[in-house]
Design goal:
Layout lengths: L1 E6 L12 H9 L3 E6 L12 E2 L9 E2 L1 H12 L8 E11 L2 H8 L3 E5 L9 H4 L5 E4 L9 H12 L11 H4 L17 E2 L2 E2 L9 H19 L11 H11 L6
Parallel strand pairs: 1-2, 1-6, 5-6, 5-7
Antiparallel strand pairs: 3-4, 8-9
Helix pairs in contact: 3-5, 7-8
The chain binds S-adenosyl-L-homocysteine.
């Protein structure tokens, strides 16, 4: 899969794309990331891409011409699949596991990072972007951190990126539930014990126990997720017992 990231700070991505899972994904060619310096598309001799807001007010605005030029260059690249172009914005669709999976199905995604007070609205009104994605209900100083989070979350769905078999499938949100708790050595630590069942060697009991832990954790911490969780009859019954009256939708 190919990502293009349009940014004023290409250097921002160098270390994260060279380390750990993302680093290996890039090295093995599963993931290809092209960093595009927005200033390369400025027509200003000083490579300026921002200007004062019409109507006054604080801060600067990312101007339309370099953003149009950068996106049009990506779309016009011969021989490459057409990119799905997403602008990163607190006003976009909230990023989550479902959206990460949707993006992982695409051969090429371009992420455009804003800066300053925001971007000239005409990029939106002209339909320059296919999508707008938000990392959450807070304001970052630029789209770079959001782009990195999206890159990392999406790349986990690309075959071969996460080595441990079944690891991604067991993660939080995969079946609408939070993950089960994990334990490792030492068995006893500051009088804190590991649940007995994990030493039983009884795979079915361990599976059931983990599933129950998932239900408990989700019920306690993120009951909103339960509305859409894929549960069988037995799990629904268990959940109703745990919740003392929780009714499956
Ligand atoms: N004034 C704007 C925020 C500008 S922040 C507003 O209130 O809507 C500058 C840039 O950071 C944005 O253009 C966007 O690209 C990026 N950014 C900020 N918060 C973000 C978020 N939650 N998700 C994704 N990108 C974000």
């Amino acid at each position: 899969m190919r990502f293009d990231v349009v940014t004023l700070f290409p250097g921002y991505f160098v270390s994260p794309l060279g380390e750990s899972l993302l680093g290996r994904a890039v090295e093995s060619g599963i993931l290809e990331v092209h960093l595009v310096d927005l200033r390369d598309f400025s027509e200003d001799p000083h490579r300026k891409v921002d200007d004062e807001p019409y109507g006054g007010g604080p801060g600067m605005v990312l101007t339309a011409p370099p953003v149009f030029a950068a996106v049009e260059a990506l779309r016009g690249e011969p021989g490459a699949p057409p990119p799905h172009v997403a602008f990163l914005s607190p006003q976009g669709r909230r990023f989550d596991a479902l959206l990460a999976k949707e993006l992982a199905e695409r051969p090429r995604v371009a992420l455009v990072c804003g800066r300053y007070e925001g971007i000239d609205e005409r990029t939106r009104t002209a339909g320059l972007f296919d999508a707008e994605i938000s990392l959450g209900d807070f304001v970052l100083s630029g789209g770079e951190v959001a782009a990195l989070a999206i890159l990392e979350a999406v790349s986990r769905y690309l075959p071969g990126v996460v080595q441990a078999a079944g690891s991604v499938e067991a993660d939080s949100f995969e079946d609408g539930l939070l993950d089960y708790p994990h334990f490792s050595r030492p068995r006893s630590f500051r009088s804190l014990e590991v649940p007995e069942v994990l030493f039983s060697g009884h795979h079915e009991n361990i599976r059931r126990w983990r599933r129950e832990q998932q239900l408990r954790a989700t019920l306690e911490r993120r009951p909103d997720l339960l509305e859409k969780a894929a549960l069988d009859e037995e799990e629904r019954a268990l959940l109703e017992r745990l919740a003392g009256g929780w009714r499956s939708p």
